Amino acid sequence: MHAFTGAYAQTQQPYILNGSATQRNCNCYVLTPDQQNLSGTIWNKNLIDLTQSFNYVFEINLGCKDGPGADGIGFILQTKGTNLGATGQGLGFKGISPSLGILVDTYQNSAENDPPWDHLSIQMNGESNHQLPGGDLVAPVMLREGNENIEDCAWHLFRVEWNAVTHTMKVSVDNELRITMNKDLVADIFGGNPKVYWGFAGSTGGSSNVQQFCAALHPSFSFDGGQIFCDGTPVTFKDNSSSFGNITRWRWDLGDGTILTTPTPQPHLYAEAGKYEVKLVIEDNSGCISDTLKNIVTIGSYPEVKFGPQPLCLGDPLQMRDSTKVKVGTAAKWTWDFGGGQIAHTQHPVAPYTAPGNYPVHLKVETAEGCASAATQVMSVFSSPEVSGTGRNACIGEDNLFTATNLTPAVDIAKWYWVINGQDTLRQKDVAYRFPAGGKYSAKVHAVSKDGCVAKPVSIQAGVTDINLRAGRDTLIARGQPLQLNALADGEGLHYQWTPSTGLNDPYISDPVAVLQKDQLYNLIVTSSEGCREEDQLLVKVYAGPEFYVPTGFTPNHDGVNDYFRVIAPGVPKMDFLRVWDRWGRLVFETSTLSATWDGTLKGDPAPAGTYVWMVQGTDYSGRLFNRKGTVTLIR
Questions:
Q1: Rounded to the nearest 5 degrees, what angle is found at the Cα of 176, between the Cα atoms of 172 and 177?
Q2: Strands 553-554 and 625-634, sheet pairing
Q3: Are residues 55 and 197 in the same domain?
Q4: Taking a C-beta distance cutoff of 8 angstroms, is the pair 544, 571 a contact?
Q5: Which of 189, 320, 415, 591 has its CA 20 to 30 A from that of 397?
Q6: Tens of pLDDT along 5-58?
Q7: Is the residue at 590 inside a domain?
């Protein structure tokens, strides 16, 4: 709905419509629908006088089909009447003479010598062939520079200007001047008759498009150059509306409840900063009313200038941070003055100072709306501390000691921070930390000065030595049988000591050989090059042998005492078999593994109590094959 109240309808149709032409609304007309072999013309009823200058503004729309679209339209001046037109490639202009046609041709007709792109030309006397004598007054050009297609569904501004004094005709498309022609139209074309009809013609042939035009009725406004849009500053609106006819009425809605009907409003002061939707509607002398133009006008607030941080610390980039707030509008320009002619224009510059001190810094912030504010603040610049640190290696189960050093004694340290084992938990200058396992570890230390400046973190390496000593599993041997010991430990340069040294060929190596006559408990001490020390023990039981020691009975009742039948074989590294039979000669258990035991079951069920026969055979450490046999009583 238009904003005008009581607006009158168009009282008299100023055009005569022929052929396929129809009126779409008050000031817009369709020359051809999207159908083949049509012609439509629209002629203004009133003759114009070419001894008078004119400036006609239209909008044209050539449809949406490019390749299969056709054929085009023309703005025509002629003296023959108001019922003329033609179909196809003549664009409704062909055969009208005398005439002048400003043609918008959207189809390449080889017979007309058309270029391959949509084009604009000026021709005369109904001739549309570009190479025939007397046809072209201005050779074809693109309607817009670099744009080969005008059938783009869009509306394009089409302006025809005639200067009757200089005999100059100018044609513009979308405010881009495309053709300028100097010619005495009255004398050279119309035989001295200055009174001509004007109008539009359009046609289709084997191809087609919707082709239409509107007598321009464009509301538009702008602002004075240099206008700022700030709270408390009046805004000056400038009417730039255009119309084919005369504009007779305006209706302004300034977005704050202010309604005006003057062509140009007086400078307007908004009550406060904010975003206001300004609307403009115009009406021309034919009674046509424009669509409503809507534009947002932002009345900005003045910036609240703030910046930091405090303090600035040498050793790092002195990065300034603008924290200015703008309630309405957008900060767009920054001017930093660091003194001594040192100026910066980025939002977050780096201050140029190289020595400690107090420096006044001035910042001016201007918004996109032209609102500017400034503030000055004294910035303190301090030296940053530098630190180093050391870490002492430790043995597993002991604390690693870490020590920090201030390399800048003139800068007082307020706080120390240690990051050890990925945890920032320690706050002393010198700290102790116990790592859970052996290995290489890193720690970091940094500090904060009393002025708030942070030292760069320093990485420190520390190690934890874990010998991880294993003297070996307790074992048994035959009396006089050589036993190879083999202690395991992690690390290099380790020192071994077996005590007592009884039966050992060398008590100071990891793998001595022991020859024993009785049971022996060995204690092994291993010391690393860092001084870490670990101990472990190994028990060697000695039996007369080589021999098989077999019990005479067992009680498999799962009480944890004597539940299994097994063979102890000192001096026998390899057993061929151990077999057990019941009293009927049935084999109930067999193994060739020294550590295997019989649990008193037969095929998963408890074997009955009674006497069982066994036999064992093996090879002793000297290579002698021997065997033993006997009985065992299973007691339930």
A1: 55
A2: parallel
A3: yes
A4: no
A5: 415
A6: 444 444 457 789 999 999 998 889 999 999 999 999 999 988 999 999 999 989
A7: yes
